[in-house]
Predict the 3D structure of the following.
Amino acid sequence: MNRVLRHSSSSLVVPLLAAVVAACGGEEEGSGPDTTAYLERLGSDTVAIEIVRRYPGRVEGEVISRTPLTRYMTYSFDVDATGTITRFETDQTTPAGNTRGPGRWYSSMEFADGRAVIAREAEGVADTVSLAAAPGTAPTTGRIPMPLGILEQALRSRDLTGGGAVTFDVLSPWGMNPGSTPTRVTARGGSEVELDFFGSPMIISLDGEDRIVGLSGAETTMKVEIEPIDEPDMGALAADYAMRDVEGTGLGTPSPPAAVEATVGGANLLVEYSRPSTRGREIWGALVPFGEVWRTGANSATHFVTDRPVTIGDLDLPAGAYTLWTTFSPEGGTLIVNGQTRIWGTAYDAAFDLGRTPLESTVLDAPVEQFTIAIEPDGDGAELSLAWDDRRFSVPLSIR
């Protein structure tokens, strides 16, 4: 039988009945699926919509994801009486309204005897892969976060009623050498569990029958929020979002990469960073917490490169490559120059700091939607500036 996540005896009823009916070969005559639709938001923007349909012994799902462009996906999996997924299938396409998107991506997984057999086809190229897979491995589609129907089943088949944590493997079919990734889940008490998301907790809320009723990535770098909604017309939404992509008004990449190049006093300067948007969110002291080191953008760490010695604020730097980090308070900010390079934006290590220098803060007359770094000429030197929402931070830069 499925093992549930809390002590409540009422939460045993649905998993027990589902297991019994599944073992008998199907659902009750005339009954329909147990269905939940979900909305995934990043700030005020809808980034995905999912519908989960739960049948005895089987789950089917639909997902519309909007970044970097709209994709429509279906998935389904079969479950045995222990809650273990035995077969999984997913099909991903670009809606017909956008002829410039990628073609069909299809895959299936069969789990038996400690192995997974993966059949996959991406834009007409097909192959089959067989690899070891621990019992209870949860298949996924490569999308982050993983589809809620799969995540929900992975949680249902683990026993967290005594508290503590469990680890299960997640297997994506894609990549040159597909393999499993261990995923840790910890009981938080009541109706919540936390999923380890690269070292930060993604909070999952459950109802009395162990259905997912919410997910929050507020404590992670992903920042998405997921909540149930009324079941939408998925075909109409997919067509609408695809048309927005064609017209250039789709969501695109949530925090696109950018590069700032400037020549100051004969020195060639380069800043490479990513540009998150406000999306209706409170930024200073909230999305960017006061007193914490920030990556000064999104995704990879923000890099600064100069081919001549420079002075930034009161920091003298030789020619070379660096990463730029920041901290903020209600009164102002601080720029941190670090010697580590080619790292992700959560890999900050103060042991490599070369120094810190104050940033001057000003309040903007008009808010800036997308985080912007600039190198602006100023006399014989320049000013390095950061602008987002209602604040601008700056520090003088000169060539030595």
Notes: The mean pLDDT is 90.
